[in-house]
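[Solved] Which block belongs to which protein?

Original post:
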Amino acid sequence: MAPENLFAGAYLDRRAEARLQENWLAEAQADPETLFVVMRAGAALTLAAGNGDAARVAFLTGSDPRVAAAPPAQMVLLGWLQERRCVLVTLDDTAAARQPEEQFTELRPLASELAPAEAGLLAYARALHLWHASHRFCSRCGSPTHSARAGHMRQCDACGQTGFPRLDPAIIVLVHDGDRALLGRQPTWQPNRYSTIAGFVEPGESLEDAVRREVAEETGIAVSRVAYHSSQPWPFPASLMLGFTAQGSYAVPQLLDGELEDARWLTREELATGVVHLPPQDAIARRLIDHWLGLS
C-alpha cells in the first residue's frame, strides 16, 4: 500500500550477509563514503532546520574525532543508504554537539520534519541503540555480554548464550459498524484527542485474537471480520504496530480495564466537522481513520 507509513519503506539496503564479515568495521572506517549516524542516550545527532532547510541527520565521516575515538563495541552496521555504507555510533551520555547547527534530538517530535528515508534510518538506529543499552548483561546467568555480528547480536562472555534484537508486537485497530467508528482517549492525552484502540500482543495469542481481546477489554465491544491494513515500526522503544480494521457490534462502550478515559462512536460526518481531535497525519492510527473515511 502506498504511501508507506512513517518509519517504513525500502529506504535502506540492509545486506545482512555483510554482518558476518570479521573486517566489516575496518572496511567501513577505510571507506571515505561511509556515513556515521550518531546517537547518545536515545537522542540522535541532527542538524537543526534553518534558512528554509528542513531538519536532517548529521551524518559524520570516519575522520571526525568523535567517530575515530569511539570503541568498536559501540559501532553497528546498519546497511547501505543510496549505495553509501551507514554505521551507527553510540557516544557516551556526556557527549556534546560540536558545531553550532548540531543538536542531539529525540526522534519522536523530529520525525515528521525529516525526509522519510532519514526518519526511517533513525528509527532503525534508535531501536538498535536502545537494545544494546538494555542488554549489556546475560538474561540467563547475569554475566556481561559483548556485541557480535556487526552489532546485530550479543553474546554472553560466560555461558555463551546469544541474543538478537526483539520487537514487541502491538495491534492497533479501527473498529466500525459500517456507519460509525469507535474511538477512545487516554487520560494523559490533550483535551478532546481521540484515537483508535491499541494494545500489546500477549504470548500464545494470534494477531486477530489480540484485536478481539484488546477491544473487548478496553471498550466491551465484540468485533468480527478482522482485516489487516498495514504496519509501522515504532521504536519507542521497540514496538511494531500492526494495523487492522474490524467490524464491531454497536453498543454503549464499557470501559472495563480502566485504560481509557472515554470511548465513543462517531459518524463520518461528525469526524469531518472536527468534533474531536484526531491523531497526527504521520501516525498509523490516523491512516486507519482516513482509510475508513475514504481519504486514503
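(Second protein starts here: sequence line, then its C-alpha cells.)
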Amino acid sequence: MEKTFVRKDVWSLRTDDSPWHPITVAYAGAVRVMQSRPANDPTSWSYQAAIHASHASPPPGARWNECQHQSWYFLPWHRMYLYYFERILRAAVSAAGGPEEFALPYWNYDKPSPSNTLPRPFREATLPDGSPNPLFLPPPRRNTAIANGAQLSPLVTSSSAAMAMLDFAGPPGPGFGGGRRAPAHFGGSVGGLEQTPHNDIHVQVGGFPSGQCQGGMMIDPRCAALDPIFWLHHANVDRLWNQWLALGGGRANPTEMAWLSQSFTFRDESGAAVTLTGAEVVDSAADLHYVYDDQVTDEGIAVGMSAQPPRRQERSMPPEPAAATDRTIELVGRPVSVELVVATEAVPSATPGGAAAMYLNVEDIEADRNQGVVYGVFVNLPRDTPDVDARRYHVGNISLFGIESMRDQDEAHEGVPGFRHTYDITAVVERLSAENRWDPRSVTVTFEPITPILAPGQEELAGTSERELSEAAAAAPIRIGRVSLFVA
C-alpha cells in the first residue's frame, strides 16, 4: 500500500523558541539543491518555476508558461503542478538524508497572528547552520511591510465568500473554481477562490513590481514560482478546495468530460514528461496519496469537516440589470466612491431569505501593469462614521494578478485587455435591509486600498508603505469602465 503523506501548517512546524523545524530545514535544503541545477534540467528551480510562467524563452521541447488561470482548470492544474514539484523536493530531501515523512507545508494565513504573517523561516537571512537561507527574499522582491512581519488583512486572507458558493463553475458568476473555459494561460473567468485569497495574497505579498523579477516576485505570474513562499501559498489554496468539498450542501466537482478528461503535462523527479487528467486528481488522498493535517483525526482521514446551512433557493430567471455607473472610475491608491444610477422599480428592498439575489459586476478593469495594490469593494460603506466595521459592507476585492497577460493579444482570453469580476452581494444587502439600512434608491460602491497591518514597534514602516503605495498606484492607474447591479 502506497504511503500517504501529510502536508502540515507551516506555523505548527517550530521547535522550542526556534523558527526552524526539520521539515522547513529540509525544504530549504531541497530548494537550494534545485537552484544549483542548470535551467535546462526539468528538475531545476528555474525550470519548474517556468512551467508556471517565465520571462525567458523555453529550451527546445519545454512546456513553459502553462499555468491555468481564470477558468475551471485553475484548481486541477495547480494541484498537478504542486504534486510533481513535491515529488522533486522529496527526492532531493531523501538524497540528503532528510525526514522520510517530508511533505510540502502549507501557509494558513487566515488564522490570527502570527499565522497571518510571513512564516519565520522565510524571514531569516541564514539557516540554523549559518549558511544563506534560500527561502529568504528581501525587499523589493517581497512587500516591505510583509517581509518585516506585518500582518495580512483578514479582508484578503478570508476564503469565506468562496466557501459560501455552491457551484464549482456557476452561473451566475464563475462560481468557486472558475468559469467554463477552454484551457488558457489566463482565461478571463476568475473563480471565487482564485480571486480571494489566491490573487490577493500574490499581490499583497509580492508588493510592487519592477523589471523582470527584480521586484515584486509574487505579483508577476512569470516570476511568482521563483519565490519559495509561492508553493506554500498554493498548497493552502489546494487545501481549501478539499475543505469546500467537505462542507457538502450540494458542493461538487464538475462532471463534464471537458473537465474530467482534460490532461496537462509536467515533469517528475526523474525529469520525465508525465500527464494527469482532471479525473485523476479529484481526490488528493486516494489519487495522489497526500492529505492535509486538518483532514486527519485519530481514527484516520476525516470524510466531512462541518455542517453547512441549507442550499439557497435556486433562481429560475437570469439576473436582470438594475443599476450602473455612468462614468469611468480611476483608482490611484486612494478610496473612491461612486453612486449607481438606479432604476428604482428594479431594485427590491431585500429581506433575509427573500426571493431576490443580487450581484455586483465590476467590468472592463484595465491597467498598463499591476500597481501592487489590493482594493476592497464595499457597498454603502458609511465613510464618515468613525470606527465603522468595514467588513460588514465588504463584498470582495480587486487585485490584478495576471493583468499583463490579459493585455497580450497572443493569449486566448476574453475581455481584452481587462478583467471582469462578479460578486454575490445578497447577504450584505439582506443584513442591511434587516437593520433598516438599505435604500434601493441609493446604492454606493466604494473601492478602498487594503494594506498590511503594522504591529506595535513597526511604526517606522508606515511611511515606507504609504510612499510605495502612492508611487506604484500613480505610475499605473487602474481604470474601471463600468460598475453594475444585477437582480435575480
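Accepted answer:
You had them paired correctly. Confirming on the second one: Residues 301-315, 412-416 have pLDDT under 50 and may be disordered.
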